[in-house]
């Protein structure tokens, strides 16, 4: 039988830690956006999908969702900074309060590109929520409004994060063997 946990050297963040953090973030976000007339959460595919699904169910105010898919060229474990939009938003974000939901901010290049790109469409506000942050690898400044955990410079898998497209289904965040 094939076992995906074999690639996990160490569990960095447990299911329980994730659950607790997602709940806290959901409460905070619900409070912060409670007066918004048009709150939109945008999941950055594919990595953000697991976090998005969990976070969304901790939101207690009216919210709509959208998906965006991007890809950065280069080798599989580091980001090149060249971002290609594979799937754009389906609706206009003009005048809306947009919250981007990401799996991880590493160099920051991906989110820098996406935020600049989306700002041109004149949302009322644009913020970032990321599950993980690897601050030691940052190349460009991005303002992160909501964050789950800061992690060291290790390549992580699970909870949406992949290696070569696999391991997104691990329920915790682990370090790749
Ligand atoms: P940047 O460098 O643009 O990169 O902030 C963000 C994207 O790079 C991927 N990434 C990772 N994916 N484990 C992963 O599975 C990691 O440790 C990791 N670090 C960066 C990820 O796709 C993220 O959206
Ligand atoms: Mg990603």
Automatic annotation (TrEMBL):
GO CC terms of this entry: cytosol
Gene, per the UniProt record: hpt
Protein's name according to its UniProt entry: Hypoxanthine phosphoribosyltransferase
GO molecular function, one term: guanine phosphoribosyltransferase activity
PANTHER family documented for this protein: HYPOXANTHINE PHOSPHORIBOSYLTRANSFERASE (PTHR43340:SF1), HYPOXANTHINE-GUANINE PHOSPHORIBOSYLTRANSFERASE (PTHR43340)
Enzyme class: transferase
Pathway noted in the entry: Purine metabolism; GMP biosynthesis via salvage pathway; GMP from guanine: step 1/1; Purine metabolism; IMP biosynthesis via salvage pathway; IMP from hypoxanthine: step 1/1
SUPFAM superfamilies for the chain: PRTase-like
Transferase found in the keyword field: yes
Reaction equations catalysed: GMP + diphosphate = guanine + 5-phospho-alpha-D-ribose 1-diphosphate; IMP + diphosphate = hypoxanthine + 5-phospho-alpha-D-ribose 1-diphosphate
């Amino acid at each position: 039988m094939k076992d995906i946990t074999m690639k996990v050297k160490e569990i960095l963040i447990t299911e329980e830690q994730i659950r607790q953090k997602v709940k806290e973030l959901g409460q905070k976000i619900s409070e912060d956006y409670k007066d918004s007339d048009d709150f939109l959460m945008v999941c950055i595919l594919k990595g953000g999908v697991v976090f998005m699904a969990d976070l969304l169910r901790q939101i207690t105010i009216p919210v709509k969702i959208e998906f965006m898919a991007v890809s950065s060229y280069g080798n599989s474990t580091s980001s090149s900074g060249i971002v290609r939009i594979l799937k754009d938003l389906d609706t206009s974000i003009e005048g809306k309060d947009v919250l981007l939901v990401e799996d991880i901010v590493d160099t920051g290049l991906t989110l820098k590109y996406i935020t600049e790109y989306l700002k041109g469409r004149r949302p009322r506000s644009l913020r970032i929520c990321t599950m993980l942050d690897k601050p030691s690898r940052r190349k460009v400044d991005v303002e992160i409004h909501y964050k789950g955990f800061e992690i060291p410079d290790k390549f992580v898998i699970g909870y949406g994060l992949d290696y070569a497209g696999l391991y997104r289904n691990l329920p915790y965040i682990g370090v790749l063997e």
